[in-house]
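Request: Not sure, any thoughts?
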Amino acid sequence: MKGAIRRKLITASLGATMALVCLTTTTYAWFAKNADAWVDEFKVDIRQDEGLTISVDNENFFSDITTSQVTKAVIAKRLGIAYGDVTDQMVLQYKDDLTLASVSTKDLQTFTTVDSKSQTSYRALDNTTYYVPRELEANEFGYISFDLYFKAEVATSDAFSKYRLQFTTTSTTDNERGVSYIKSQPQTQKIYNSLTAYENGEKVYHSGDTIEINPANAMRLGVLTEENVSTIYEPNTGYSSYALQGNTNNLYNPSYNPMLTYFNNSHSAKLEPLDDLDVYKNTQKDFDGNISFGTFERSVDQTTHELSYNRLKVTVFLWLEGYDGDYLPTTKTNNVELFLNFTKVGLEG
């Protein structure tokens, strides 16, 4: 298989204003034929509720984060170094050389992909050769990740003993900024092989046909806490989600998964559907849930009687799910918007 979808992921904004991050990506995309000019903009808006401040280095906390801060945070994560050790020269060297591939993960700690480095396995039972997804090596990143640090600032008279860090939900008191989302504009594209989808019944597309794809439907977002508790979100499903072995639910049925059927119609070696049902059972279908990313616990200095809370760290991941039915080789991810709104919720006791 040959690479190279190259694209720029532009824009990560933290706080009330938008900051820009430029990332150029290369991917084998789980397909032999790739879109050469996949250069697009991602708009990522990450905000926090009143009474929260946010940081990328756990030292300097702000209500918003600048372009250079976000860029350095992504590069620091990419290189495995401290934020403060990222120099201006490193920014120039690496900001256009960060890679994004179509990958898959169930724990935000091990990511797999299928590309020219993947091995194949022959199965005599069905006389078929399959690709074996390979684990990304330590120096590879087929996804975006960066660390965020949160600090609760609460007036003594209003303080709870504990606060839970979570995404804003429709039931949160201070939710005027809205619930988190991933969205983009659907696009019509021509395909160069056949695929199968489920649209109120089985529908087969042939080479030369056009199909409408919404790239946001193939996106996943993950949050990993300090305790290594992972949460994966898939707010948009579209034609289908994961291709799961033996699944009769059309949303997860490999027979109706456009990506899987398109790939297998295009290659002599095939992709095998996943057999881990927990992959999708444990995936959150929207951001509107009371999932805790950690707890701010109150402490009082016995000498000064000063009130304070512990700081919380989360790592955010963004990727294209390799088994998602809405990921096709020529899909352009222009006008994709990611909005994340964090809040704190007071806990009694």
In short: The helical segments are 67-79, 88-94, 258-266, 278-281. Residues 7-347 form one domain. The longest strand covers residues 336-347.
